[in-house]
What we know:
Elements: H1 17-25, H2 32-36, H3 50-61, H4 65-75
Amino acid sequence: MASGRNGTLYLGVTSDLAGRTYQHRNGLVDGFTKEHGCTMLVWFEAYDDLQEARRRELQMKKWKRAWKIELIERDNPRWRDLFETLF
């Protein structure tokens, strides 16, 4: 999730990407994303195994911000909100 192009970034794991993104977009989740306006889904990876997804999350949370931005821009150079692509 992002607040906008090159804005604040949030990284998390969920078993319901569409539902969780909806919650973040509509300010239904108190905390970091609401405080920082992270309402755009700009990048995601899908996993069949939740434990594998959690390992990837922990790995990426150690990354430098520049690496995360590089990953977003590789797959979504215009920083489009990908929420609509989930349906």
